[in-house]
Amino acid sequence: MSMTRPAPPTATALGLIGCHVCGLVCQSHEVGRVGACPRCGASLHRRRPDSLARTWALLIAAVILYLPANIVPVMRTVSLFSSTDNTILSGIVELWRVGSPDLAAIVFFASIMVPVLKFIALGWLLISVQRRHAHWPQRQRSRLYRLVENMGYWSMLDVFVVTLLTGAVQLAPFAQVVPLPGIIWFALVVVLTMLASMSFDPRLIWDRGSAMDGKRDD
Amino acid sequence: MTDANPPQAPSGPGGDLPEPVAIRRHRWTISLIWLVPLIAALIGVSLVVTAWLSAGPQIVISFQTAQGLTAGKTEVKYKNVVIGKVHRIDLSQDRTKVLVTVDLEKKAEGFATVGSRFWVVRPRIGLGGISGLGTLFSGAYIGADTGGSDEEQTRFNGLETPPPLTHSESGRSFLLTSDDLGSLDIGSPVYYRRIQVGRVVAYHLNKDGAGVTVQVFVKAPADRFVTTDTRFWNASGVDVSLGAGGLKVNTESLATVISGGIAFLAPAGDAPASSAPADARFRLFDDKTSAMRPPDGPPVALQMHFHQSVRGLKAGAPVDFLGIDLGKVTSVTLDFDPKTKHFPADVTAVIYPDRIGKANQRFEKRTGNTNPGALLGILVKHGLRAQLRTGNLLTGQLYVALDFFPKAPKVAYDPKLKPLVVPTMQGTFGRMQQQLADIVDKVHKIPFDQIGLRLDDNLGKLDAVLGQLHTKVMPEATSTLRQAKQTLGAAGKTMHVANHALSNDSPLMQNLDQTLVELRRAARSLRVLASYLSLHPESLLRGRRNDAPSVPPGTHSPTSPPTRSQP
């Protein structure tokens, strides 16, 4: 029934607020900090507090850490006579060269493509929300957000690979895998992007007009 | 819900809402979350800074080949500690070399200085041993050695072989000059009393191309045994000597037999000399014997003109003076004498007067003349001559002997000539040859043809004479002989008659016998008479008395009485 209308009324406009923990709907016309849920005691808020700022901060931090994560080697492979340090990218190249293009593609997708796509997607979402480009397809943006959130976990694949190899390959003089600082930066990148996407409030996509201005800028 | 739509826009009931405290609190929370990217940025900056601080200088090393080197992988090691990594491998502009760009680590800054050396460590198998075996599996790496200098340098020429010694080794290096390298090579061992104490580290041709300079490095404890009068010799090969004690095979070590080596020792009995300074120059002798010989002193060049064939005389042949090896022949060439139209052999030799020993010193002491030409002048005046002698009858090898010939004709001698010209004597063998030649010459001069002709003529005449003899003389001789035979027959008959006449029963013989008997009787009678007379000398006057014994009984014979008539 409301498909043809430009936008349905928001809970804010109706003076309603829902608890994110227990789902209780309360009535409140206050702006800003509303208070605690009368049923479960969780703090109530209309939108995630400081969503944009937090997302931006975490995203920027992730982007910054993404550089050392890719430059610093993540893993050292020690064989009987040689020792090789591999960054993520050189590991992929190595995999491709020794004849596992499928594995290389998976690692490339999970470790390089996913983080980069997340940066771009989140950045775009943030910018679009800030600029209130309502004419940009909101539904697609929403879908993109869900994709980003679900996809994010897969980036930990590389971290797990290094962790498992380190545990499994410890045949001291013949073969050994040692984790290097790069993997910590990479894990931090993954964690930060996940936190960033979690702190992003997708409802902001649907907010538009001056009604939200005051609350968001507060 | 649907009813609340219309008052959407003007719903801001701006009554009593401003809450400045809340805004302040809000701003504070905003700034807290921004710490996260700040920390991330700090981490990033710190990483960049540490990377920048730990980055050492970048150097370029040129190699002949990039075999075994991989950009981004090959490491640079010093004492097996990684000090850098190959960054890039390029070809040089003229494509003759490979330029390897190496990122050195910060701690290895000291390697980007003058004197540092770089080489590629690959598996190597040599006579001295096997090295770099580990690189068989790990791949080649670049070895490095510091030069100990502080002057910076970023372009290096890589060595093709590992340097035989590293900078940190203590010891001294010395320079040895030799005629040729022999079987020495970089890395060849240096022995002192058969203990390996050093190595050959370099060699190069002298600038004029005449000779080789070999640089050896003697390690620290042993380098003080290298004194100013130490002798170095080439210990390559086997020294086989056959003496009164039997066969002796002498070699430094088995490795030197194949790959060569150098040994050194100070001559025994000498006063301890001072330690030699680093990079001191020594002569590299061919063997221990020549090394241990007292020093030869300055050489003196000699020149000799031999008027005979010098076949068998070669450069290097000894110059012998009363059995002492004084020096050696350096060249044998032919000269041309336009006056006599002869080709005298022009032999130059070098002798070491100090090898004579005391004689030379004594002469110098007495005359105060150190010019070797003067001594030689005196010797030449006393008949010293050079002579070619056969050293080996089988091979015909010649040597130059300096010997005294008191009867040698006097010759002019100039002690100031260089080289000194020593008068020569025909060699014993050569002289014999000439005498033989003279004999043959004389024999050749005998006119055998004419002699033969005349002999033939005479023989013809003799034949004629013999023919005459045969035809004329022989018949006469035959008749003469026949006559002689007849004469002899007659003589035989005469003899027969004579014989007959003289036989026992012949009348002549019987007559003779009777005559002799008569004669015997007569002799006896005479004797009786004589004895009678001696007893009775008065009988001569008075005659015989009757009482007198007539005759002794033994002598009474029929023939004895008739001697009365005899007196």
Structural class of chain A: alpha+beta
Number of helical segments of chain A?
9
Largest sheet data of chain B:
8 strands, mixed
Distance between the termini of chain B: 245 Å
- Strand sequence of the main sheet of chain A, in spatial order? 6-5-8-7
List SSEs of chain A in N-to-C order.
HEEEEHEEHHHHEEHHH
The major β-sheet of chain A equals:
4 strands, antiparallel
- What fraction of the residues of chain A are assigned to beta strands by DSSP? 5-15%
Shape of chain B: rod-shaped
Oligomer: heterodimer
Strand order of the largest sheet of chain B: 25-19-22-21-20-24-23-26
Helix content of chain A: 55-70%
Strand segment tally of chain B? 26
Low-confidence stretches of chain A: 209-218
Main interface by residue count: A-B, 34 and 31 residues
How large is the share of residues in beta strands of chain B? 25-35%
Parts with pLDDT < 50 across at least 5 consecutive residues of chain B: 1-12, 554-567
